[in-house]
Amino acid sequence: QVQLVESGGGLVQTGDSLRLFCAASGLSSYLAAWFRQGPGKERQFVAVISESGATTNYADSVKGRFTISRDNAKNTVYLQMNILKPEDTAVYYCAAKTATMPSYHYWGQGTQVTVSS
Fold first, then answer.
1. Among 117, 40, 34, residue whose Cα is nearest residue 81
2. pLDDT tens readout for residues 2-16
3. Biggest alpha carbon distance in the chain?
């Protein structure tokens, strides 16, 4: 069982930066991703990182502004968010899966990010 715990959310202004953290024992063995769900919106993919950290992929809406990374020695995945916009306001969720799982099996409780204009 992997228990994901997110942290790092908060209230910031347009153009600011924020770093999210996702930690779990054994997380280094899992592919990890960030999703977000804005007010009145469906949950959407933000970024994903391979188990080794060698491969990443991003939603078009965050490319060039967000960076996903991981420190497997600390069993932690990060989401560095720069040049934040009001439309980035959402609850951000960390998710994890093994290579053989068809979908993300483990989810965190979410952390709120609010970007004021």
1. 34
2. 999 999 999 999 999
3. 42
- In this predicted model, what pLDDT tens digit does every residue of 18-28 receive, in sequence order? 999 999 999 99
Distances (CA, A) of 114 to 16, 20, 59, 63, 97: 11, 13, 19, 19, 27
Give the pLDDT band (50/70/90) at residue 30. very high
Whole-angstrom distance, CA of residue 30 vs CA of residue 26 = 8
Q: 94 with 6: CB under 8 angstroms?
A: yes
**Dist CA 19 CA 66 (whole Å):** 9
pLDDT in tens, 102-115: 999 999 999 999 99
Handedness of CA 52, 27, 76, 44 (dihedral sign): positive
Taking the C-alpha atoms of residue 61 and residue 71, their distance in angstroms, rounded to an integer, is 25
Three-class SS state of 88: helix
d(CA 12, CA 18): 8
